[in-house]
Every structure is written in structure tokens, then in C-alpha cells.
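Example for tutorial group B:
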């Protein structure tokens, strides 16, 4: 193993480690990034390392994944697991939301909130999403995006406005200025 390590280092690959088999799962879990594919190859009892690694990832992500799948079964809108928040903000920053839910209507929203409460999940609700700052660590809970047409409605009656949380702020300002 040391000879292989030395040859790899000599070839210019700086990110090479020798790790004892009983510490391998913890090491891989620590350095793995979202989207990585982890392939475990070896002989003998290497399957124990693979099983240990799978257990460690399931312990961290299993509950969120299970909750996301549960939400998918009960709402008409979209549900995603590990959705990057930077995709939904104007300045393109933010880590992953463990669960991203897009209710289609008020009924979906009520189901998501009830489900999150039953699962003891933190909830963060965003409207159009453009005027938020999300941290690189993301959000460990359910982010509810009110971006469906149902939540973008604007009703004007005289000088009274009823504005959905998903309505564009810039469009609202233009509309009010043109009255």
C-alpha cells in the first residue's frame, strides 16, 4: 500500500491518504461532497466498510429523505431532497435545504405544515425567494416555496391590495406606481 501511495503522490496527486480500514468510513464521510459517487472496492471483509459507510450516511440523511418521500405522497406540488438554495435567490448564494417543498395551493400548504409539525421539522417559508440570503450551511428542515401561481395572485380593490407571498415585488411596485 505504501508503494502505491508513494507512486500516486509522485505523479502529482496531492490529495491522497492512507487510512486504516476501521477509520475509512468516517474518513470518507468527512470528505464526501454532495453529488459524489462513492465506490468501495476491495477483498475480504471490505463489505463491512461499505456497510458502515452506508449506515453513517443513512443516519445523517435517512430521516430527511424519508420525510421528503412522505411529502411527495401527500401533496400535488413538488418536493425535493437536498435542494440547493442558491438556485432560488437573486444573488445566488446558499447551501442545501434538506427538504424543499413547492405547494400548488392552500390545501398542499396545510398538508406540508401538518406533516412537518408531526415530524418535528423546522420550517422556513419563502415567497418569490429573490430577496433572501441563505447561508452556505443550508437549512436543516423544510423550506416551503410559495412560487406556484396560486400564491402569486394580486387583487386590487380601490387602494387596497391583497398580494400573494409568491408575487414579484418589482411587479407589485410597477403596478402600484401605474395606478
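The residue assignment follows.
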Amino acid at each position: 500500500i505504501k508503494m502505491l501511495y508513494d507512486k500516486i503522490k509522485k505523479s502529482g496527486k496531492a490529495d491522497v491518504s492512507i487510512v486504516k480500514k476501521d477509520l475509512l468510513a468516517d474518513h470518507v464521510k468527512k470528505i464526501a461532497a454532495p453529488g459524489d459517487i462513492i465506490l468501495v472496492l476491495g477483498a475480504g471483509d471490505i463489505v463491512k466498510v461499505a456497510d458502515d459507510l452506508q449506515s453513517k450516511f443513512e443516519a445523517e440523511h435517512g430521516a430527511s429523505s424519508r420525510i421528503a418521500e412522505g411529502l411527495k405522497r401527500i401533496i400535488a406540488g413538488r418536493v425535493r431532497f437536498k435542494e440547493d438554495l442558491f438556485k432560488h435567490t437573486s444573488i445566488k448564494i446558499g447551501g442545501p435545504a434538506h427538504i424543499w417543498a413547492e405547494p400548488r395551493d392552500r390545501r398542499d400548504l396545510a398538508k406540508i405544515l401538518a406533516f412537518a409539525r408531526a415530524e418535528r421539522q423546522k420550517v422556513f417559508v419563502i415567497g418569490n425567494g429573490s430577496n433572501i440570503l441563505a447561508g452556505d450551511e443550508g437549512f436543516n428542515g423544510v423550506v416551503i416555496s410559495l412560487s406556484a401561481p396560486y400564491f402569486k395572485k394580486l387583487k386590487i380593490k380601490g387602494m387596497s391590495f391583497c398580494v400573494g407571498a409568491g408575487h414579484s415585488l418589482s411587479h407589485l411596485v410597477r403596478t402600484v406606481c401605474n395606478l
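The first strand starts at residue 78 and ends at 84. Compare this with the pattern of hydrophobic and polar residues in the output above.
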